[in-house]
Automatic annotation (TrEMBL):
Gene3D superfamilies: Transferase(Phosphotransferase) domain 1. Keywords: Kinase, Transferase. It comes from the Eukaryota. The keyword Transferase applies. GO terms for molecular function: ATP binding; protein kinase activity. PANTHER family: PROTEIN KINASE DOMAIN-CONTAINING PROTEIN, SERINE/THREONINE-PROTEIN KINASE NEK. Residues 19-220 form the Protein kinase domain. This is Kinase. InterPro entries: Kinase-like_dom_sf, Prot_kinase_dom.
Length: 229
């Protein structure tokens, strides 16, 4: 989709929030979302559609398809926590994206929530919005196993509303990751999700659950036929 360029920069600079409306060459008004970054970003096969990027005043602006919130802001909105069905939907979408892409670096800030017809969908987008070491594993290299670990941390957040670690810096987090034990996972978490977290957050990458097997978990499998939009 081509967007008229002559007034885009001014619209971006004047935008009161991240909702942007632009006119295409065919005269149709289309809604977009705007993300402002201090540095560069890397889109590793994102499923969130990215249309254009602009630089101005030492900031990088990224124009994307509309989204409701990041997962981080959604969790702040839902102070009473997410329903089991919502958790299953979000982690299903994340795992599906990981299955079909080379997406390794992600956290709550670069999982984007889209709402449609009273349903939600999660999409992986811009990978360098933050450097959250809590989502790194002990592998030392980027791989599918690393992504499974990160998704396990996401699932932990979805189920508890907080991080698996109570740390102040990268060094403390690295030590906590190395000593992470399944007993650190609260028994109050839904039994199926708890088993998934145990499988996904194994210290040994070779022992972590495979994405295909995780998607066959009964709680997630029921979501697969409905993830077309």
């Amino acid at each position: 989709m081509q967007i008229l360029d002559y007034n885009i920069l001014q619209i971006i600079l004047d935008a009161p929030d991240r909702q942007i409306y632009l006119v295409t060459e065919k005269g149709k008004t289309v809604q977009y979302c705007l993300i402002a970054l201090e540095g560069s970003f890397e889109a590793q096969s994102p499923t969130l559609k990215i249309y254009k990027t602009f630089k101005s005043l030492n900031k990088l602006y990224v124009l994307t398809e509309p989204f409701h919130a990041t997962l981080q802001s959604l969790l702040k909105e839902q102070q009473n926590g997410l329903e089991i069905g919502q958790i299953a939907t979000i982690i299903t979408d994340v795992l599906m994206d990981l299955l079909h892409s080379q997406f390794f670096a992600f956290s709550l800030q670069n999982i984007f929530i889209i709402k449609q017809n009273n349903q939600i969908k999660a999409k992986l987008g811009i990978s360098n919005l933050s450097c959250d070491w809590a989502f790194s594993s002990v592998d030392g290299v980027h791989s599918k196993a690393t992504s499974v670990w990160s998704a396990g941390v996401v699932l932990f957040y979805l189920c508890t509303g907080h991080s698996p670690y109570n740390c102040r810096n990268k060094t403390e987090i690295e030590e906590k990751i190395k000593s992470f034990d399944i007993t650190d996972i609260p028994n109050s978490i839904n039994k199926i999700f708890r088993q998934m977290i145990i499988s996904m957050m194994q210290i040994n990458g070779g022992r972590r659950g495979q994405i295909e097997d995780l998607l066959n978990t009964p709680q997630l499998k029921m979501n697969l036929p409905n993830r077309d939009w």
